[in-house]
Amino acid sequence: MKAAIRFLGWVTAAGALSTVTATSFPVLLNQILGDTFGTAFAVVPFVALFAVIFAFRWKDLERVLEAEGGFRTLPRTRLAGVAILAALAVLEPLTGGVVETSAVALILTFYGASLAINPLTARFLLPYAAVLSAGVSAPSALQWAFGAPLASLSSAFSAGLVGLLGVHVTWQGTQFLFASKTGEIVSAVVTQDCSGIVSVTTFLGLLALMHIDMHKELRATVKVAVAGTAALVALNAVRITVLILVGYDFGSSAFWGVHYWLGYAQFLGFYLAALVIYSRMGRRDLGFYPANSGFPYTPS
Predict the structure, then answer these.
(1) What is the pairing mode between strands 170-172 and 175-179?
(2) pLDDT tens-digit profile of 166-210?
(3) What is the spatial distance between Cα 43 and Cα 131, in angstroms, rounded to a whole number?
(4) C-alpha 282: how far from its chain's center?
(5) What's the pTM?
């Protein structure tokens, strides 16, 4: 019961503090989801997936929370948490400009609140804070560096697949054009946003969390990371091919109507399949493990 109360207190406090430290995040996220999918519902399955992954460690977190002492314990850790929260509040006008930095501020708000309220969780939650912060901030940088090559690769694969299916499509680099059966001319460009880099980075971030939560062998994690990255690149080419086939049969409105939801459904299904496969792979039982390092203390 003590652990549950501390957990709920932490989540409630962090949620309240986020209205000061990450004020713009809900608006920015809703705007992006609305522009992309027409609804904010798209985020729900991914939040649920993260909750499932995190649930694997509840017993370990419960042990840490049960061992928490009074408010006089670990004052330096508590002060560090307060300092993080204060810094986030001061920097909110800067971090609230774009969704990536606002998301990082939200993550650090939860981490800072945990340090202030439940200091024993400092090392336990550090890998989560680090992975999530990298996961929401890295895609933009990686998209700039690798988005164009991946877009070209996906376009080349798609051109080959469409050619095998006998659909005439004119390609010029990452831009393509074709005449649909409805008489419409459909044209589009495989941009960096459509290159699949965001799906790859999201997958690697979730895989890192699963590695922490499930105590898997590093070799197994690397194998899944390599195979999953290759599979996602191939799936992105398949997605583009399916979109072309839909547009060829039903026209431009159908092409754009399924454009975002197809990728969303496809990649969410992939993540769930990867979770099932990865959960059955080798488990690491010995040696130093970052997520377990949050319980080095004895109750005061």
Answers:
(1) antiparallel
(2) 999 999 999 999 999 999 999 999 988 888 888 888 888 888 888
(3) 18
(4) 24
(5) 0.76
